[in-house]
Amino acid sequence: MKRVSKMFTLLAVSIAPGFALLSFFYLKERLSSEPIGFVLRCFIFGALLVFPIMFIQYVFKVENIGQSPFFSSFVLSGLLEEFFKWFIFLYTVYKHTSFDKPYDGIVYGVAISLGFATVENLLYLLANGVNFAIGRAIFPVSSHALLGVILGFYMGKAKFMSQQSARKWIGYSLLIPVILHGSYDLVLEIIKENWMLALTPFMIYLWWIALRKVKIANSSNILQPNIPTQQSETQ
Fold first, then answer.
1. pLDDT in tens, 55-67
2. Is 49 strand, coil or helix?
3. Could you tell me which residues come within 8 angstroms of residue 226 by beta carbon, excluding any fewer than 6 positions away?
4. Residue 229, SS3?
5. Residue 37 gets which letter from DSSP?
6. What is the DSSP string of 152-203?
7. Rounded to a whole number, what is the largest CA-CA distance in the chain?
8. What are the pLDDT digits (tens) for 119-129?
9. Using an 8 Å Cβ cutoff, are 73 and 189 in contact?
10. Closest CA to 219 of 173, 146, 161, 170
11. Alpha-carbon gap, residue 210 to 221, rounded angstroms
12. Whole-angstrom distance, CA of residue 100 vs CA of residue 114
């Protein structure tokens, strides 16, 4: 019974931050909210990304390839993880009929990112224990959500807010999260003690950027008429 109780507690503290943050950004939308079924599907897509990414990172580690702090932070973590999230968004969300307002990009970007972060968090806590749950919720899980906001904001800008420069904004939706993610990981690689103190200003900055983009996207929702897309909801 104790073992079952511990496992339930571990699952709860692993999953709760992701769903709390997803609910926060989902409910931030000023107009009609997104279909919960498709939001959860995006969450699952993000969750499934963990396993191929972890396998690639494991191979690089075993072969002792690219283990320098800079390469590990910006390529094996930043580029690899953000590229897969960006790819999933671009090919499953971007032309979907549910993506019909600028803020929708933020909802779906956050859903994909938090799916990834939740499974990653669960695996970490299974290996290291629930004592790390609070720190993981405040830093890694939150940072994935905030990077998802940036991903989704620029996708929304590409699709609705700046049609003439769509490719540029789609590029930004990958480039900026990669740089921020790599910078986050580089701090962890370099600073082994008191890393929370070092990352706190960075996290405050990330929250400031994300909430600013939430405000801009919500304002654009009000001004932007719904634009039908070519892809059906079932795709």
1. 999 999 999 998 9
2. helix
3. 100, 101
4. coil
5. H
6. HHHHHIIIII-GGGHHHHHHHHHHHHHHHHHHHHHHHHH--SSHHHHHHHHH
7. 61
8. 999 999 999 98
9. yes
10. 161
11. 16
12. 21
Tokens of 92: 């499953």
Q: What is d(CA 232, CA 141) in angstroms, rounded to the nearest whole number?
A: 32
Tokens of 105: 């990009």
pLDDT in tens, 193-233: 888 888 999 999 999 999 999 999 998 876 555 444 434 33
Token pair belonging to 83: 């590229």
Q: How far apart are CA 235 and CA 221, in angstroms?
A: 24
Query: Helix, strand or coil for residue 20?
Result: helix
With the CA atoms of 27, 151, 216 and 135 taken in that order, what torsion angle do they form, in degrees rounded to the nearest 10? 60
**Two tokens, residue 183:** 């910078």
CA distance linking residue 120 with residue 153, whole number of Å: 24
Phi and psi at residue 109, to the nearest 5°: -65, -45
Buried b (16+ CB within 10 A) or exposed e, 115-129: bbbbbbbbebbeeee
Cβ count within 10 A of residue 178: 20
Share of the chain above pLDDT 90, in %: 74
Report the alpha-carbon distance of residue 18 to residue 48 in Å, rounded. 15
In whole angstroms, give the CA distance from residue 181 to residue 175.
10
In whole angstroms, what is the distance from residue 25 CA to residue 15 CA? 16
Rounded distance, CA 198 to CA 215, Å? 27
